[in-house]
Amino acid sequence: MKKSMAGGSGSAAGIEVALPHPRTSGPSGFTRFLESERMLAGLLLTPTVVLLGLFIAYPFVIGVWLSLSSVSVGNPGEFVGLHNFIKAWNDSIFRTAFYNTFFYTFWATIFKLALGMWLALLLNRHFRGKRIIRAAMLLPFIVPTVLSTFAWRWMFDPTFSVLNWLLYQTGFITTKLPFLSDGTYGMWCAIVVNTWRGMPFFAISLLAGLQTISPDLQEAASLDGANGWHRFWHVTWPLLKPVTLVVVVFSIIQTFSDFQLIYVLTGGGPANATHLLATYAYQIGVATGLLGEGAAISLFMLPVLFIVVWLQLRYLRRLEGA
Amino acid sequence: MATREDDSSSEASRAPGVSRRTFLAGSAAAGVAATGLAGILAAGRAPAFAQGTRLNIVRWVDFIPACDVELKRQAGDASKALGAEVVFEFINANDIQARITAAMQSGSGPDIMHMLHNWPHLYANGLVDVSDLVEWQVKEQGALYGQSEQYTKVGGKFLALPHGIVPGLIAYRKSWFDEVGATTFPKTYDDLRQVGAKLKKKGHPYGQTLGHTFGDAPSWAYPLLWNFGGMETDKNGKTAIDSKGAVEAVKFMNAFWKEACDEGGLAWDDTNNNRAFLGGEISGTLNGASIYIAAKRGQEKIKDDKGEPMVRDIQHARLPAGPGGSTSYHTAFAHGVMKYGKNQKLAKDFLKWLHGKDQYSKWFQVAEGFSVGSTKFWEQHPLWSTIDEPMKGFRTAPDNSRTMGFAGPPNAKATEAYSKYVIVDMFAKGVQGGKPEDAVKWAAEELKKIYG
What is the distance between the alpha carbons of residues B357 and B377, in angstroms, rounded to a whole number? Predict the structure, then answer.
């Protein structure tokens, strides 16, 4: 139905606009469904729930089932209770991998935090070419881990290491350093590579946090006579702490479950000295085909990560409450 | 170069195609296979089941790249003959086991998988019985080497078709060994240790991996254990490594490592010793013939310290003897048809074609002695009469090979012990400073979890 609508001026007097039909009956079933907040919320959440169920919950449940069974490659296996967990715990290589995972995560996170913070503070200053430097800093994070780790592996090569060559030529060493052929060196090499790769994530996240801190606060502290360290410790750090904690939680999760870096750099060697839980689980579960045992080893990560995340989030909530 | 190879090989493939037909028709007449490729060729067109299908084969990346080129060329010929697209995928040998596991568990993946060592025992539930093909191959090419037979025969059935063996001999620099007074290669491990110590003092260490890698590490570690009188299991398959022989083997390795070896070897994979040798960094290493072949093919670039082609200074020798004798371990290869595959018959037809004398011979010649056959038949191939003198030792090398799990059978448990690198790590633990007795005890504990 069309009606003429009189406008404020004569020229608009002839404009016709379509008006909605008057309701002749109640809303349709679908409209009523959409108007119900609970129903709409359910509808909108469905894709997410399906995706999470398919790609997170289902593999997790299968993983738990595998860990409680004697499934091996081509063999359906049977329920064995906690046998795989007990076997893993009594396995000396597992214990080495378990310890290594903590050691690797702890030191890599400390270095990433310290260096990332330092880099963020530097990049928060004004200097020429700041944008290019900020973009370039992300390169280690952007380059696929496998590729960058291969490059590091060549640099640490037992025979043709460019680092050994450089140190030898500059007189710092007289014999080759056993970068990857000694367990202790190998682990520290892995920590260095992880730090190199993960530091930009810390730096860019902390930089974003730093930019939310008002310069007025720094100025006020300066006027009160605070030096650089005092300004950082009493002004910047307290305001940056929530961002830092979130970044640290993410980093711990990623580092604790790291696989690619160790797999490419050392393969868990020499003699299992650099295995992490993820790489050892892969060796047992996928390479050797003992899927149940492999799943059990990987599930040892779950409670540890759960506790770490829970503690840190609890602390974060307390901070926010304060 | 590749184009020239392709041209010549396609030219060659037309002429011998007749003999292939003749052979296949003959074998069919013999009742070995009434259908298969003979039937396809007789019909003159690809069977309906094959048309539009694709056959995927996963193999290792060969140390002789020309071998993979030849297989790709043969895939083209096979595609035409079978009416199905035959596609080779070459992956790092250290990743094949993971690929097999993933494929078997998901029930989908390549139709044919490369099987190294005794893997058919571990993957028995996922492999098709190919006893008929083995029977045909044996009729055509003679009896299998014991190693190839034991590795592919599981519970009375053949679960993979043996393709070849890559023997490991010690490649060494003749002139450097001469310089320290070793005009012939050391006959015993102790002699090798003494010569190696002299060479290391001159900056030419021996190179050996003790890393987690599929070929060179077990090929050194297993015979070292055996040659000092040790064994993984007894004849009944029960753990028997905790012995004087094993301790003596680890003691030898510890001393040899410090006195004679490049200590970076703990982090080497199967490629590092090739690069180190060709780079003039090491005086000797246990390896397939790939070092010699690479030095020969690249002799314009790969020179020794005098500027001469290095290939002229390379010799090969068998592993020395220990108190327990002189045995070796050579890596056996086979092809397994996967049970989940939808083209099992096609896969078997293809393998019969690929392993047949005619096709295999072409590939065998490209390998130049790096890969020898699975049967003694290939010891008589004309290649061996024209091959370079230092390569001739590879011809009969498989004759002193033992199998994983020795003295017990090379069953799935032996594959598990291999996949966990227990024997390799026993030596690696020793050279890293552990007491030999402790390293052996650790290995015994690990093996008991597997064998009981």
Answer: 10
CA-nearest of B58, B78, B77, B56 to B68 is: B58
Q: Which domain holds residue A200?
A: 96-276+300-321
Q: What is the ipTM of this complex?
A: 0.81
Classify residue A20: in a domain, yes or no.
no
- Distance (Å) from the C-alpha of residue A119 to the closest C-alpha of chain B? 33
The two tokens of residue A194 are 């992880």
CA–CA distance, B168 with B214 (Å, rounded to integer): 13
Please provide the CATH number assigned to the domain covering B2-166+331-393: 3.40.190.10
- Contact assessment for residue B104 and residue A74, using Cβ atoms and an 8 Å cutoff: yes
pLDDT tens profile A97-155: 999 999 999 999 999 999 999 999 999 888 888 888 888 888 898 899 999 999 999 99
pLDDT at A24: 57
Contact B334, B325 (CB under 8 A): no
CA distance B446 to B241: 10
Tell me the whole-structure pTM to 2 decimals: 0.83
Using CB atoms, pick whichever of B102, B262, B445 lies closest to residue A159.
Answer: B262
B169-329+420-451 folds as D-Maltodextrin-Binding Protein; domain 2 (3.40.190)
- Chain B residues in contact with A270 (beta carbon < 8 A): 210-211, 266-267, 428, 432
CATH of the domain at A124: 1.10.3720.10
Residue carrying structure tokens 């699975």: B374
Residue A71 lies in a domain: no
Strands B54-60 and B85-91: parallel
Which residue in chain A is spatially nearest to B98 when comparing CA positions? A287
